[in-house]
Amino acid sequence: xxxxxxxxxxxxxxxxxxxxxxxxEHLALESGLARSYLGEVERGKRNIxxxxxCVLAHTLGVAPSELLDFGAPVPKPARKK
Length: 81
Description:
434 Repressor (Amino-terminal Domain)
């Protein structure tokens, strides 16, 4: 399985949003971010900016690190010889 941080971030965002029983539309209204943008982030199609990670964390009531907790260790890059 390939390591895809954008997909993992999107999955984590969905988990946290659903814990609050919020729709994408509600998260968009609370955060000030466009629903279509949030949908692309949740599907792993957008590379989210750090400022938007902070906005979402604040909106969801979690630390930014919670959005980056993918539940699996990050693979180490291969060393070049």
